[in-house]
Design goal:
The protein is an alpha/beta fold and 262 residues long. The protein contains six helices and eleven strands. The strands form two sheets. Strands 3-2-1-4-5-11-10 form a seven-stranded mixed sheet, sandwiched between helices. Bound molecules: S-adenosylmethionine. S-adenosylmethionine (SAM) binds next to helix 3 and strand 2. InterPro entries: Methyltransf_25, SAM-dependent_MTases_sf.
């Protein structure tokens, strides 16, 4: 078996898409529920910062929404463009972008960022800048749905998980493991590995990911510093529309529905 340790796991969008696109339906249904329930007026123009392969954009595009994305990794952005050519895609940094950079520079009705991408912004300055950029491009009455794992201040956080997905003749086993967490610098390091089994090849690749840690209080502080947002409701990663949650010191996976206030 080859073992080409690669520096950036996001340089392999074709495998990312197999492993992460598998379970798109619950997120898709949940997002549609949020657009209907929390956006004032129609929700037609949608933006996904850090859109990756566009696994959700493509489904929303097919459902009739106008979709746009921002993505830093050139290989991800190229894959997303091929997969969803009608997406208004910006190759850039989600902590530094403006409406004028999109092909159609009109305010968005809603944004979403479902699985921890906000935590890739490793400083308070970048995180605040991201939420300000989002507030600048989403109209008042619109929403931003943000899913992330918080670090609980009571109890032990989840340290590793493994899951498997298959597309056509390719099976990918994904292992995500947190190996270092410094709550003072607020940096968490994780390894993400793919075991890829296909008819004509077997491959193992591993990459490192860095995440910023957030307690519930730290998340609220960042939002307050950024301004322009209020927390309309909170859910968890079960995406159960009937079961909003109350965020506590024990909370780990939280989906914030942020409302853009004037
Ligand atoms: C966990 S993936 C999520 C992709 C997609 N949102 C999804 O739900 O499948 C994180 C993505 O964030 C992108 N990313 C990381 N930092 C970024 C930044 N500063 N600006 C834009 N994209 C970024 C990565 O390249 C990667 O595609």
């Amino acid at each position: 078996m080859n073992d080409p340790n690669i520096a950036d796991i996001y340089d392999l969008p074709e495998y990312y898409d197999i492993i992460f696109a598998d379970d798109w339906e619950s997120e898709f249904e949940f997002l549609r529920f949020c657009f209907d329930r929390y956006v004032d007026g129609p929700a037609q123009r949608l933006l996904e910062p850090a859109c990756g392969t566009g696994r959700l954009l493509v489904e929303l595009d097919q459902a009739g929404y106008d979709v746009a994305g921002v993505e830093l990794n050139a290989k991800m952005a190229r894959y997303c463009h091929q997969r969803c050519p009608s997406a208004d895609l910006l190759a850039g940094d989600m902590s530094n972008f403006q409406l004028a950079q999109f092909a159609q520079p009109e305010p968005f009705d809603a944004g979403f960022n479902m699985i921890n991408s906000v935590r890739h912004l490793l400083s308070e300055q970048k995180a605040v800048s991201h939420f300000r950029c989002m507030a600048d491009v989403i109209r008042p009455g619109g929403i931003y749905v943000v899913g992330l794992h918080l670090t609980p201040t009571i109890g032990d956080p989840l340290e590793e998980e493994t899951w498997v997905a298959t597309r056509d003749d390719v099976t990918v086993t994904c292992h995500l493991e947190t190996y270092d967490r410094d709550l003072d610098s607020r940096i968490e390091r994780a390894s993400l590995s793919y075991d890829i089994a296909a008819k004509d090849r077997d491959l193992q690749v591993t990459g490192d990911l860095s995440f910023r840690t957030y307690t519930a209080e730290q998340m609220e502080q960042t939002l307050q510093t950024a301004g322009g947002w209020e927390i309309a409701q909170t859910y968890d990663f079960t995406y159960d529309q009937e079961q909003p949650i109350v965020v506590s010191e024990k909370s780990e996976d939280v989906v914030y529905v942020l409302k853009r206030i004037a």
